[in-house]
Design brief:
- The structure holds two protein chains of two kinds.
- By secondary structure, chain A is α+β, with helices and mostly antiparallel strands.
- Chain A folds into three domains: 5-187, ATP-grasp fold, A domain (Dna Ligase, domain 1, 2-Layer Sandwich); 191-322, D-amino Acid Aminotransferase, Chain A, domain 1 (2-Layer Sandwich); 335-365, no CATH class.
- Chain A is built from 13 helices and 13 strands.
- In chain A, α4 (72-88) packs antiparallel against α6 (146-158) and α5 (93-110) crosses α6.
- By secondary structure, chain B is of the alpha+beta class.
- Chain B folds into four domains: 8-115 and 458-473, no CATH class; 124-193 and 367-454; 230-328, no CATH class; 497-603, Glucose Oxidase, domain 1, CATH 3.50.30.
- Chain B contains 19 helices and twelve strands.
- Chain B has an eight-stranded mixed beta sheet with strand order 5-12-11-7-8-9-10-6. A four-stranded antiparallel beta sheet of chain B has the order 2-3-1-4.
- In chain B, β9 (550-553), α18 (561-569) and β10 form a beta-alpha-beta unit.
- The chains are: A alpha+beta, B alpha+beta.
């Protein structure tokens, strides 16, 4: 029996079955030092206790017994009724209070009253009946306030009974009453700056460097190429910023009053100011390096600097995927240099004009 | 921007320095006799080792050193692409030109080089052990040189009764010749390992640049550099003596700036006397340490100028009293070195690469202690002995009225000294008036006047036609000369908007008021927190590295002494800027970025 909510940083592998894939993955990343937006998972226990108290199994039997999966109208009507029941069923007071307390705590950590959060469904495990529909379960963005969070949680639970999911279970012979769901509540990132980072130098494949592209606001403009970003090159080992190119970023992607993102022009001062401080650059580089070590291969990550979180905790990893261009190329070292014959290698070193190369690179870097 | 430097034949003689050529050997001068060859070469001023005007005798070590270097490249090892380094003296300054091996010979030299250099690499530790014995034996030989005034009468027992058959005049002349031959042998020893040490380092360097095209030179240097090297020992001894003074309760005996009183105070107590004998133990050999590069007779040697180590020790004692910690962060440096090696190892993509990396790093670390330590044994310890012996000889000349004071002997060329000695000897043997007292004082005075006229003129950084790219490995490694620095010289060294650039020699950023220092005599001017700006630094300046915030030098590369010492002390350093001492003034606030190799003048 686990507690109702589990913060990402308290996650451990033993509770994976109660947390669902998404929450488990966020917990694992947090534990590995990969700073995803902060938040917590609401365990399957919370769903089970609520369902038990509301006598949901009986309702399920009542509405779903004898459903004809080929009659789409019938399916639609029956599933809607179940979803209504779930959306309105009362939560046990301890469950509701635990979720509200978690949300308050998250708001406090973010330094914001009623912090906007994403509420997402998180399928329990790979082999469970609902796993195939993980992508279909609901996600609610920019949810504010305890009441709306509770409502969104119930909506996520209700998404267990979409028409497709319900039919699938019938066809596969799974029990409706055995399904369960974890829900993730996670701070919405409100970036002052965002962008991408590669854990190698994209121009020459040098794995000892990290390249960062950055612009003001949300990262959409950087990813799509609509904004020419600032570019920084950081040495992984020496941990110094080797090159900085600050571009004129005429626009930024910013949040509107309706919780949508729009492109807005920037005044000249802000447009030509660097979108990151040196400490932020180093923080993003450290994050990229951690991701690379965690996943064991060069990474292409999306990151953001959050406006709400305190300095030192405000660099957020949004996405990480393997780098594909350079990672597939064979290393360029020549056979002589790589051979164990050190004398041949020394002769080759003395004869090759290595300084003309390194010197040219040095000039460019300055 | 010009595409070449002035011809050596177009460089005017500074006013008042006419006739300067008489101060140096005919073979060290540019002349019409070799004009075609000399005009075809690229010459750079060696500001790393000889930033100041050479007096006539001081040219000895310059000529011995460069020739010995060349000999190892061409006659011992047959370094495939590189012949030796040719040298000249122009307006008193030392110039060098690397001589490439003829293209057609390179192939044939490879096999010989592999055999010869291979033998050294395979037997490095044995040969290095032998070197340590050889160098100590040589120092002992030099110390044993008997340079004493000629006696009124030869000793009965030692010379007459023993049937020795030769006298003190012969012995003195012989001692001078042996001093010269020891000095040449010393320089042969110096280069026995050095070129190979650099070659192994360059091989590792080249590999690192190949697998990590943008790896900072500094990171490579840090992986190879030793932490406990003999070059730091003199400073460590000062610290040990400061701690001993505190721990044995004699710290109060130390009076700043007054060695005599300090010594009297110390001699008054048992603990003080114990301290003095401990100082004397440290002094041999560790205080045979020059406050310069060791290449000039004017460099001050600690053991001859005990006020230098005493001042440093007195400073260290007050640091200790203020609760300061004198220890170098040795453990932190070790840990950082291991971290860097491990991280690069992790970043390599195959076991094959990791094996090559480990092998090359291993060889570089085997050979590098020589590169780091030889400087103490040759330029400091051995040169200290040689300068002292020369000063003893100078005193004999001074007493005989040949010159006004002992150090005037360095205004004689080395081949003029035997002539003067013979004059002295003959006048003693006969006895009859020597010509020397009438001949040398005027000559020395004239030469001193010429040397000060030469000093007043700054040397051209380079002469002749530069190569398209600087590829000669030793030129880059030893002198820090790259295509970039050549371009900067051609640009004239004006500090543009980009500020002053050099090698990112030791990481970190520091801001503070600049203190521009041109010679070791000025190092006492340095105040806490200032940034040292100098043509170059010497390892013996180590004690001031506790005071300063960063270092900027005109000359030197990643492996220059300033770079090594700053990394050791965790201070930012930018080396090889070319013009920092001309462009920065004492008192200006400057920012030194030792990670990017830039220096910015913030305000006047």
């Amino acid at each position: 029996m686990s507690s109702t909510i589990t913060w990402f940083e308290s996650y451990w592998a033993g509770i994976k079955h109660e947390m669902g894939g998404k929450a488990a993955s966020l917990g694992e990343m947090t534990g590995a030092g990969l700073p995803v937006p902060p938040g917590f998972g609401i365990s399957t226990t919370a769903y089970r206790r609520t369902a038990l108290e509301a006598d949901l199994d009986q309702q399920l039997a009542h509405h779903l017994n004898g459903m004809d999966v080929n009659d789409t109208d019938d399916v639609s009507r029956r599933c809607a009724a179940i979803r209504d029941i779930i959306r309105t069923m009362p939560m046990p007071i301890e469950v509701e209070e635990a979720i509200r307390a978690g949300y308050l705590e998250l708001s406090a950590r973010s330094g914001v009253t009623d912090v906007p959060v994403a509420v997402r469904s998180s399928a329990t495990s790979e082999d469970s009946p609902d796993a195939s529909f993980a992508g279909e379960h609901d996600t609610y963005l920019w949810v504010r306030g305890g009441d709306d969070v509770i409502d969104a949680v119930r909506r996520c639970w209700a998404s267990l009974f979409t028409d497709r999911a319900t039919c699938y279970r019938v066809e596969m012979g799974y029990e409706h009453r055995s399904v369960e769901m974890c829900v993730v509540v996670q701070k919405m990132v409100r970036p002052t700056a965002a962008g991408v980072a590669f854990t190698l130098n994209p121009t020459d494949g040098d794995r000892s460097q990290i390249a960062i592209d950055s612009a003001w606001g949300f990262g959409e403009g950087v990813v799509s190429g609509e904004i020419t970003p600032d570019n920084f090159l950081i040495d992984k080992v020496v941990r110094e910023i080797g090159r900085r190119v600050v571009s004129v970023k005429e626009c930024e992607f910013a949040l509107t009053d309706h919780d949508t993102v729009e492109k807005r022009p920037l005044d000249a001062d802000r447009a030509s100011a660097p979108s990151l401080t040196d400490d932020q650059i180093k923080g993003i580089a450290a994050l990229a390096r951690t991701a690379e070590k965690h996943y064991g291969c060069p990474q292409d990550i999306e990151w953001a600097v959050d406006a709400d979180l305190p300095e030192g905790q405000n660099i957020i990893l949004l996405q990480a995927r393997p780098e594909t261009v350079w990672s597939k190329k064979a290393p360029a070292a020549s056979s002589v240099t790589k051979s164990g014959d050190f004398m041949a290698s020394i002769v080759s070193t003395l004869m090759s004009p290595l300084y003309s190369r390194s010197s040219a690179d040095g000039t460019e870097a300055k | 921007m010009a595409d070449r430097f002035p011809s050596p034949f177009d460089i005017p003689t500074p006013e008042g320095a006419e006739g300067w050529q008489d101060l140096y050997a005919y073979s060290s001068l540019f002349s019409e006799d070799r004009r075609e060859y000399e005009d075809s070469m690229f010459w750079f001023q060696d500001g790393v080792h000889w930033p100041q005007v050479l007096t006539p005798w001081d040219a000895t070590f310059f000529e011995f050193a460069i020739t010995s270097l060349s000999q190892y490249n061409t006659r011992h090892l047959l370094v495939p692409p590189a012949n030796g380094i040719d040298y000249r003296i122009l307006n008193g300054y030392a110039y060098l030109t690397p001589v490439p091996a003829p293209e057609a010979e390179i192939g044939a030299r490879v096999e010989q080089f592999m055999q010869r250099a291979g033998h050294y690499f395979m037997n490095w530790n044995d040969l290095y052990d032998k070197w340590m014995v050889k160098i100590r034996d040589l120092v002992a030989e030099m110390e044993a040189l008997h340079i004493e005034p000629l006696p009124e009468v030869e000793d009965f027992e030692a010379v007459v009764a023993s049937g020795k058959g030769s006298g003190s005049g012969y012995a003195l002349i012989d001692a001078y010749y042996r001093l010269l031959s020891s000095a040449l042998k010393l320089w042969q020893f110096h280069f026995e390992f050095l070129n190979l040490g650099y070659a192994a380092y360059l091989d590792f360097f080249g590999f690192c640049k190949q697998v990590f095209p943008n790896i900072p030179d500094l990171a490579i240097a840090k992986m190879v550099a030793g932490v406990d090297v003999d070059l730091f020992r003199p400073d460590d001894e000062l610290k040990r003596l400061a701690r001993m003074a505190r721990d044995t309760g004699v710290a109060d005996s130390f009076v700043a700036g007054n060695v005599e009183t300090t010594c009297e105070n110390l001699k008054a107590t048992d603990a003080g006397r114990a301290w003095i004998s401990s100082f004397q133990e440290s002094a041999e050999p560790w205080f045979n340490f020059s406050n310069g590069s060791g290449f000039y007779h004017t460099d001050k040697i600690w053991i001859e100028n005990v006020e230098i180590p005493f001042d440093f020790i007195t400073n260290y004692i007050s640091l200790l009293n203020e609760g300061g910690d004198l220890a170098r962060p040795v453990a932190a440096i070790h840990a950082e070195r291991d971290r860097i090696v491990n991280e690069y190892t992790d970043l390599l993509t195959s076991d094959e690469e990791r094996e090559a990396f480990a092998g090359k790093l291993g060889l570089a670390r085997v050979v590098f202690p020589y590169v780091e330590n030889h400087n103490f044994y040759v330029e400091h310890w051995s040169h200290s002995v040689l300068w002292r012996k020369m000063r003893s000889l100078g005193q004999i000349f001074a007493d005989a009225g040949f010159i006004a004071e002992a150090n005037d002997i360095f205004y004689l060329q080395r081949h003029e000294v035997p002539d003067a000695l013979f004059d002295l000897y003959a006048s003693w043997a006969t006895p009859a008036p020597p010509r020397g007292p009438k001949y040398w004082p005027a000559k020395v005075a004239d030469r001193k006047r010429i040397v000060s006229a030469l000093k007043a003129a700054k040397p051209a950084p380079a002469l002749g036609v530069p190569p398209e790219v600087v590829t000669e490995p030793f030129t880059v490694m030893l002198w820090g000369i790259t295509s970039d620095s050549v371009a900067a010289w051609l640009g004239g060294g004006a500090s543009g908007e980009g500020g002053i650039k050099g090698f990112a020699a030791s990481p970190g950023v520091a801001e503070g008021p600049a203190r521009v220092i041109f010679s070791a005599d000025q190092i006492n001017e340095i105040q806490q927190g200032e940034i040292l700006v100098a043509p170059l630094t010497a390892p013996s300046w180590a004690p001031i590295f506790g005071k300063i915030g960063a270092t900027v030098t005109d000359t030197g590369g990643m492996m220059s002494h300033a770079a090594i010492v700053c990394r050791e002390y965790g201070l930012p350093a930018v080396t090889g800027t070319g013009f920092a001492t001309s462009n920065i003034k004492t008192g200006q606030r400057i920012r030194v970025d030792g990670s990017n190799g830039t220096v910015t003048i913030l305000e006047d």
